[in-house]
Specification:
Length: about 400
Amino acid sequence: MSTTTSTRAGTSAIRKSLGGNLRQYGIIGALLVIVLLFQVLTGGKLLLPNNLASLVQQNAYVMILAIGMVIVIVAGHIDLSVGSVVAFVGGVVALAMQSAGLPWLVAVLIGVALGALVGAWQGFWVAYVGIPAFIVTLAGMLIFRGLAIILVGVTVSGFPDSFVQISNGSLPNSFGYLANRDVVTLLLGALVIAAIVLSQLRARRDLIKHDLHREPLGALIGKLVLFSVLIGAVSWVLAGSRGGAPTVLLIVGFLIITYSFVMGRTVFGRHVYAIGGNLHAAILSGVNTRQVNFWIFVNMGALAGVAAIVTTSRAGAAVAAAGQNFELDAIAACFIGGTAVTGGIGRVSGAIVGALIMGVLNIGLSIMSVDPAWQQAIKGLVLLFAVAFDLINKRRGMR
C-alpha cells in the first residue's frame, strides 16, 4: 500500500516539476518520433540538408498562419477565411508590382496593410455587431475568394528577383564555410541556443525572486541541454544545404519570438487567455472584450497578408486558386500543437510544433511517393487523434 502511495506521489511530483508543461513535452516527443520514423522509411532522405531547407520554405505559410490562428482559437473563435485572404492579398501585391509598377517593398507593405484592413472588417462584425466568428469568416472565405478570382483570373507573374528571393533565397554567405557548412547558419543556431538559455535562466531567477514554484535545477539543465543539442543538430544539417539558412526562416523566427512575448508577457495576451478561459469572468474583471476581439482579427488579417507575400514569392506567381485549404492546415497545426478546442489554452510554440508535424508528414509522404489523396487522409487521422487525446486528458483531469 505504501509503495503504491509513494509511486503516485512520485508521479505527481514529476508532473509538478514540469510546471504543467507535460503536454508540450509530449508534442515535441511526438515530433521527434515522427521525424525518426520517416527518416527510416525514406532511407535517410528526410533529413538531407536540402530537404530540411525545403521543409522550412514549403511550410513557412503554415507557421505564419498558425501563429495568428492560435490567438484566435485561444480566445474562443475560429477563422475560416485566411486561405481566401491569402489569394486576395497575393493578387493585389502581384498587380501592384506588375501593373502599377510599384517597388516590391512598397507592394509588400501594401499587402500587410490590406490584410490588416480585411481583419478589421471581420473583427468589426465579430466584436461590435456580435455575429459569431464562424459565420463572419465563412462569409469572408466566399467574399475574398470571389475577389481573388476577379483580380487574378489569369496568372500574374514576372516579379522582381528580390521579391522572389523572400521565400526562395538564403541568407548571404558572409563568413564562408567551416567543414563545408555555412558559417552564418551555424552562428544563427548558436544565437538561438544562447537566447533560449538566457531567457530560461532569467525566468527562473524571476520565479525565485518572487518565491514562486519552479522546476528543479537539474530538470532545467537537462531540458536546456536537450534543446541545445536538437537546435545545434538542425543548424548543422541546415548549414550543409545548397544556400544555408532560408531567408524566410528569419521572418518566421522573428514572428515566433514576438508573439511568444505578446502572449506570455503582455496585458493583451493575458486578456486573450481570460476571454477564452471564462468570458463572463473576463467581462466582470473589466476586460474590454470587444476591443480585444477586434484586434485579434486585425492581427490575424495582417499575418494572412504576410503569408500571402510568402506564398506568392514562393510560387513566383499569383493565381486565384492560391491558399486552398490553408485555413485547415493552420487550424490543424494549432490543435495538434495542444491548443484546446474550447479555448483558453494554447501556445505559439505548440502551434509551431504542430505546423512542423504537418510539414514532416507532407514532405515525408511525398518522398515516399504516397498518393496525395492518402496524404490528406493520414493528416486528417493525425488531427482527429490529437484532438481526441486532448479531450481524454481533460476528462482525466476533471475526474
